[in-house]
Amino acid sequence: MKTLTNIEKNFLMESIRDVPDFPKPGIVFKDITTLLNNPEAYTMLMDHLEARYEDFGLDYIAGIESRGFIFGAALAAKLGVGFVPVRKKGKLPSATIAEKYALEYGFDEVEIHIDAFAGNEGAKVLLIDDLIATGGTAAAAAKLIHDAGAECVEACFVINLSFLGGVKKLADLTPHYSVLEVG
Ligand code: AMP
What we know:
Elements: H1 6-15, E1 17-20, E2 28-31, H2 33-36, H3 39-53, E3 60-64, H4 67-79, E4 82-88, E5 96-102, E6 107-113, E7 124-132, H5 136-147, E8 151-161, E9 176-182
Parallel strand pairs: 3-4, 3-7, 7-8, 8-9
Antiparallel strand pairs: 1-2, 4-6, 5-6
Helix pairs in contact: 1-3, 3-4
């Protein structure tokens, strides 16, 4: 299942619940918990990602907190590669490097363990998250992978909110792939 048919994409899209006005008025939150608790949808998605990435020669998958952990850890186990968490500031217990990024109001920060890829200089890493919106989180995570001495070979999202143009922030950092586009 290297490419999904439109029928399969529609099935996945319909398995994701839209929650209007969460976490604040005007935002339509894409709730992937309804995809996760639908075994046919979750298996279809994970089988598709496995088929897409099995020949990439990956060394690690890096997942962005927290929904990127769900897809990333499951895919890492399928592909037999390591999993590395990219977490919000202050959550990782050992020495970290951090990257700040701008939000609509203020800043946020993500971190990775400094030794996440230690002993594996130039490791090939797939970055994964459930959704790309403005692209700030994924761009910061891709920078962290580079700064930790590895190569981000692709950033993968289940959903791209393409009307927000977030993938532009990845242009100089990494190729990208999104399973579903919301225009
Ligand atoms: P951004 O940095 O703007 O690309 O935001 C991406 C992060 O915020 C991802 O980790 C998403 O899970 C989350 N996110 C942003 N917008 C939404 C949305 N409309 N529905 C669900 N998650 C979202």
